[in-house]
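Technical annex, item 7. During the second reporting period the consortium partners agreed on a shared format for inverse folding records so that results from different sites could be compared directly. Each record opens with the tokenized structure and is followed by the designed sequence. A conforming record, contributed by the partner at site C, is shown below for reference.
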């Protein structure tokens, strides 16, 4: 499930949450479990050490520290411990009511958030575990406060992680364009190369470069064409092909629109300056 983090934050802000329990489990390597269901509560799952694979409603999740998972109640469940190490994790069960109609029922859904290595989440979990083991109305308030502190830390880390991932993806796309600008490049194919839809890819590109991917590609091609027109004696048709345009007439119109002068005019000026 692709989670909109802003929507998720808004969703929980409007929910009435009751904490059921916080459990820590350590499972030996090689252990498998199938044919069951998740408990009748929503759950946040926090990997601490080792690796495991869990299937919620048939969807696999590779669990390890640096990722946090959510599972809804009463979902078909399978799990197995991977590798030679113990699988150490914590599960926070809760119930939530109060979301408005028309919103995604996140408390019933399964999804994954990548937070990276965040020791504050671990510290908050330890404090929450201590509070959950003690009675008292004031502690109930503290438990709920800690839950939302943990949720806030999860979402903040996930936003930062996605921002970093998005920036790196755009940098890779820019490098790709720099190496392949002379080839036929379409934005849908370029987006698909990074596992995104065209609108998602264009949004990220605009966010980190200040221009759309098609605009960036054109600017890169025009800049390279100016270099070739100024430093070589190649024909306009050859240079057009060299920068990815099979139609020299279209290239000339585009070049003039972008620079204010035609390719042949720039070429002529460059030749005169050499003389």
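Designed sequence (site C submission):
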């Amino acid at each position: 499930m692709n989670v909109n983090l802003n929507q998720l934050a808004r969703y929980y802000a409007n929910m009435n949450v009751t904490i059921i329990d916080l459990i820590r489990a350590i499972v030996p390597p090689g252990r498998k479990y199938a044919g069951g269901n998740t408990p009748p509560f929503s759950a946040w799952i926090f990997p601490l050490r080792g690796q495991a694979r869990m299937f919620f409603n048939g969807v696999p999740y590779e669990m390890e520290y640096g990722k946090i998972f959510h599972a809804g109640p009463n979902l078909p469940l399978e799990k197995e411990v991977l590798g030679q190490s113990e699988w150490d994790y914590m599960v926070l069960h809760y119930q939530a009511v109060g979301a408005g109609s028309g919103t995604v029922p996140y408390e019933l859904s399964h999804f994954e958030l990548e937070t990276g290595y965040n020791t504050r989440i671990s510290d908050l979990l330890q404090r929450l575990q201590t509070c959950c083991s003690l009675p008292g109305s004031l502690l109930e308030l503290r438990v709920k406060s800690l839950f939302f502190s943990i949720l806030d830390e999860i979402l903040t880390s996930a936003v930062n992680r996605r921002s970093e991932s998005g920036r790196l993806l755009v940098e890779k796309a820019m490098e790709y364009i720099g190496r392949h600008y002379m080839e036929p490049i379409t934005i849908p194919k370029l987006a698909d190369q990074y596992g995104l839809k065209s609108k998602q890819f264009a949004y990220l590109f605009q966010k980190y470069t200040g221009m759309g991917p098609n605009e960036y590609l054109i600017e890169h091609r025009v800049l390279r064409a100016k270099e070739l027109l100024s430093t070589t004696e190649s024909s306009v048709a050859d240079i057009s092909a060299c920068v990815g345009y099979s139609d020299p007439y279209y290239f000339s119109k585009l070049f003039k629109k972008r620079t204010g002068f035609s390719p042949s005019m720039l070429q002529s000026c460059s030749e005169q300056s050499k003389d």
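The beta strands are 16-27, 32-37, 42-49, 51-56, 59-63, 67-71, 76-82, 87-97, 111-114. The mean pLDDT is 89. All partners now use this format for quarterly exchanges.
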